[in-house]
Amino acid sequence: MPIEISNRHRVESFVTLDGSTIRELARPARTAARHQSLAEATLPAGRETVEHLHHESEEIYYFTAGRGRMRLGDDEEGVGAGDCVVIPPGTKHKLWAETDQDLVLLCACAPPYRDDDTELTEAPW
Questions:
Q1: CB–CB of 20/95 below 8 Å?
Q2: Inside any domain, residue 65
Q3: What does the pLDDT read at residue 32?
């Protein structure tokens, strides 16, 4: 099997239901990945996502740049580059980016991310 390389500069971005900008680096429809997906997410400085949950997917967020806050269930903590957070299925979560720089993270989902597995738990903007 040939090596499959996905490069963030060659992947088109889109905005998800929660309001973050996503570049899917690995997903079943486009790569050899079958049981998970990997995306780079960017939350612009001073912005926030819509609180939401995923019924089936477990997510792992690994923050690569910026600073912000994350709510997971009823807990809220500061996050920044080098931090890693596991989000169990069915857990409400939300991000805020600090005002001075974008918050950037890698998001691994298993099973792979699907819009129909996302439930918004607060009204969008």
A1: yes
A2: yes
A3: 84
